[in-house]
Amino acid sequence: NDRFTAITDYYEARNSALEAEGQLSAPYKPLPPEALYLGEAEWSQRLQQHQHVALTPYDVPGLANLSLGGKLGRNFAPERKDESINIYNSLSDHTEDLHKAGKKAIIISYSDGAAERLSTVLADHGMDAIAPVRTLKDVENLASGTVGLAILPVESGFEFGGVAWITEQDILGDRLIRKARRTKKAENFLTEVTHLSPGDYVVHVEHGIGRFEGLQTIDVSGAPHDCVWLRYQGNDSLYVPVENIEVLSRFGGEDAIVTLDKLGGAGWQNRKARAKKRIREIADELIKIAAARELRKGEIFEAPDGLYDEFCARFPYAETEDQLRAIEQTLEDLAKGRPMDRLVCGDVGFGKTEVALRAAFVAAMTGQQVAVICPTTLLARQHYKTFKERLQGWPLKVGHLSRLVPGKVASQNKKDLASGDLDVIIGTHALLGKAIEFHRLGLVVVDEEQHFGVNHKERLKQLRSNVHVLTLTATPIPRTLQLALSGLRDLSIIATPPIDRLAVRTFVTPFDDLVLREALLREHYRGGKSFFVVPRIADLDEAAKFLDEHVPEVKYVVGHGQMPPGQLEDVMNAFYDGKYDVLLSTTIVESGLDIPSANTLVVYRADMFGLAQLYQIRGRVGRSKTRAYAYLTTKPSKRVTETAAKRLEVLQSLDQLGAGFTIASHDMDLRGAGNLLGDEQSGHVKEVGVELYQQMLEEAVAAAKGIEDDADDAFSPQINLGLAVLIPEHYVPDLQVRMNLYRRIASVDDKLSLDGLAAELIDRFGPLPEEADQLLKVVELKQLCRDAGIAKLEAGAKGITLSFHNNQFANPAGLVDYISQSRRTAKLRPDHRMVILEDLSNVKHRAKVALSIAKGLVKAAQVKQAA
User: Fold this and answer.
1) What SS3 state is found at 226?
2) Whole-number Å distance between alpha carbons of 216 and 358
3) 268: which DSSP letter?
4) Distance from C-alpha of 695 to C-alpha of 190, rounded to nearest angstrom
5) Closest CA relative to residue 721, chosen from 220, 353, 265, 202
6) Predicted pLDDT of residue 530
7) How far apart (Å, rounded) are the C-alpha atoms in residues 472 and 660?
């Protein structure tokens, strides 16, 4: 009822605003509530029309004596482990056994898309007798010998009342539709945010820098095929098949002056060779620096048995898997006997502070001093409270040093640091001053490194030479990110959100009095607090005027960095204690402020903030189980710059949990990676583009470390089956979405992920068109060709021709056996091409035959390795 009342109020408020002409900052076209929502009476009436089923894990009185034969279902884990067993044949045998025993068999999927994809896969393996079941009556009426296909959110199968329920997780070991895993390969962070628009510069690994003109459907062997159209010097065009889109990377940077390469010219190859040579030199130098760090001696800190476990038990939350891994890696570094230099990258509120707390406890309990350095006084104050609370009861003394600390206390803390009476000190960059002396500094924790200036970082470098350093950040600066991605800096990623954490709903909108009034009042009436953030102190008066005039129901307090320390302290304490509903402030709330009850954020003039800055500010809300909302507002009358619009668009699109690393990589794409060793690096980045440069650097570092890398032998198989290969425009009209899908499809490297992507397409856009299904088959074939070493595969009406990468096959003896044992007419020509003669005039049959041949050649290539 409260919700219905609120909806009615919203409608009436907009109608009133329309009547008061001239009072609006945004136009409204309100719809009456009955046009959008079912009323209470109609909802109850509709509910009564359906059958209700209640499931319970508890014993119900009156049913205890019923023997319904409930038990866990069959799990196909043993078959999944044995590669020689076809799991679908095992499933088919199992369902036949169930039918013989008089039982019904139902396979459970998670969504319509997963069900459709699974039925296609099962049909390919001979299980044709499949019927959808939507209700219990459908289960009862299921024909004998037919397998049902249901959609239910069930993870494990069971047998009950003569029906065996088998989940796709029982069969595949995973779900076709599942939450995205955040443990991605490092190289995917860059491409994840790459959006190509016509006019953008891209780099083709073989042909160099071209200009992206869009998607073009061209005729290939009589069938339509989507290609990425690139324009080169002299108005030459290059068409890259969408299934080979991984050979392209974005050039990166904004407003760059770029010269297009000439197709077939030697300029690109020469530049790439020069860059590769210099990158190898950089990698060697970086490895030497890393090796020197390895050789330096550092204090060995080991967790005291029993006491450490007791300290961990005080953590009031369940650690996530990523968090535990980061803690374990940090403690291992502390015990190695060499100075640690680890970067812990985790989203805001994902538990980085707990990693620092555990490391600090171990270091302090072994008699070493710990310094925690924060960029702002508010964050230092909060960390001080957190550390003091967690370390209470242990023989450790915690101190605080910042502008908020009275002079007398600060002076005493400095003396205690020098004498060794203080074990843990938390403060701002004041801790980096030359006047600060440590008695036995063993560990430095740097929170949000990107906020420190050059002088501060130079001082940190001096400290790094002989102490352990732990850096915490949500959005690492490009240079730090590149060092981490290159494997030259120890990196731990905390990407798993805490249990029950919800993503922040983000809205980019012109400043609208009515919408923001409703947002602030909604938070007020649900008992929460709000942040109202402005870019400059000069904007505080205008924001205060809005709150006074339009939201008089809420109490607000103003805070900014130029306030006297005592006054700012009082403001923050009053807001934290719930004496005010809204904190009106500048960006002092940006770093680390933790107020779980604050779950609405309004950012005034969001176009004046940086990308990482906005992301950090948004992280101040949504730190509990409550859904949080962020309103990034712009001036209705003022035009936003193109760069600012891009920043806001990125932030709105990346509203999932754990997007901090993606934000950082987008920042790296826009700004470049900075200099690892000197100014000369930036020139090579400009020559080959930031993505390709990063990839080349990773390969060079791996080579310098002596790690075998087959990157030089990597290739993208060329496939032509004479089939229509594209995602039709009528199926996915938006060009950006189609480009993103093509990139995702091309980067898939296993069959399960491909089927999962197909299921997602069906759920998002409807049943797969034939052209899109053929695209997925071509991508599956491409992966098999890469595994078999097939560089090119062409199919026509009379058969298939294929050529091998570098005219070589991994196992020649296996190839000879394959040709001699094949039921098909296969020949190896003098030019090392293989020809397979077969009637393939039926176009739809070609993909199936090509997949069968590729699978056979993969096995033939692997014989040598098995031996």
Assistant:
1) strand
2) 55
3) H
4) 10
5) 220
6) 93
7) 12
How many whole angstroms from its chain centre is CA 253?
22
Positive or negative, the Cα torsion across 596, 601, 606, 611? positive
The alpha helices in 398-539, defined as continuous H runs, are 407-419, 454-464, 478-485, 513-525
Q: Which helix (H) or strand (E) holds 602?
A: strand 598-603
Distance between CA atoms of residues 754 and 782, nearest Å: 12
Q: In this structure, are strands 71-72 and 158-160 parallel, antiparallel, or unpaired?
A: antiparallel
Residues whose CB is less than 8 angstroms from the CB of residue 253 and which lie 6 or more positions away in sequence, other chains included = 669, 670, 671, 672, 686, 690
Tokens representing residue 188 in the block = 């995917």
In the sheet with 556-559, reading across from the earlier edge strand, the strands are 505-510, 629-634, 598-603, 529-533, 582-585, 556-559
Crossing angle between the packed helical segments 2-19 and 513-525, to the nearest 10 degrees: 160
Residue 749 to residue 753: CA distance in whole angstroms: 7
Q: What kind and span of H or E run contains 18?
A: helix 2-19
* Strand residue runs (E) in 668-811: 718-720, 790-796, 799-804
CA torsion, ordered 187, 189, 193, 199, to nearest 10 deg:
-30
8 A C-beta contact, residue 692 and residue 495: no
Per-residue confidence (pLDDT) for residue 219, from 0 to 100: 87
Residue 724 makes CB contacts below 8 A (sequence gap 6+) with 223, 224, 225, 770, 771, 774
* Regions in the chain scoring below 70 on pLDDT: 1-2, 19-28, 51-70, 83, 174-196, 252-257, 286-287, 289-294, 348, 449-465, 475-489, 499-500, 590-593, 650, 653-691, 693-695, 698, 704-714, 863-867
Half-sphere exposure of 494 (CA within 13 A, CB side): 31
pLDDT digits (tens, 9 = 90+) for 231-259: 999 899 999 998 888 888 777 655 456 78
Give the span between the Cα atoms of 373 and 453, in whole angstroms.
Answer: 13
What gap in Å lies between CA 544 and CA 559, rounded to an integer? Answer: 12
Q: What is the amino acid identity at position 309?
A: D
Nearest to 241 by CA among 748, 774, 746, 730: 746
For residue 612 the two structure tokens come to 């990482």
Q: How far is CA 632 from CA 5, 212, 542, 662, in A?
A: 27, 31, 16, 19
pTM: 0.59
Contact 581, 556 (CB under 8 A): yes
pLDDT at 399: 93
Distances (CA, A) of 74 to 55, 83, 125, 777: 21, 19, 19, 30
Place of tokens 């004496």: 579
CB count in 10 Å sphere of residue 743: 19
Q: How far apart are the first and last CA of the chain?
A: 72
What pLDDT shows up at residue 480? 63
What residue has token string 């509910």?
47
What is d(CA 677, CA 671) in angstroms, rounded to the nearest whole number? 17
Q: What is the token pair recorded at 26?
A: 């945004």
Q: What is the CA radius of gyration of the chain?
A: 31
Q: For residue 128, what is the DSSP state?
A: -
The answer for 674, left when phi > 0, alpha when psi is -120 to 50, beta otherwise, is left
The number of C-alpha atoms within 13 Å of 516 and in the hemisphere containing its C-beta is 30
Q: What is the pLDDT of residue 676?
A: 44
Q: Where are the alpha helices (DSSP H) in 141-193?
A: 168-172, 188-192
- The residue assigned the tokens 């107020």 is 595
Q: Which residue has the tokens 């290609």?
A: 227
Helix (H, G, I), strand (E, B) or coil at 72: strand
Asked if 105 and 99 touch (Cβ cutoff 8 Å), the reply is yes
DSSP state of 21: T
Helix (H, G, I), strand (E, B) or coil at 627: coil
Tokens of 129: 């007798």
Helices (H), 551-659: 565-576, 611-618, 642-653
pLDDT at residue 267 in the model:
85
| DSSP at 439 | S
Token representation of residue 536: 């400059």
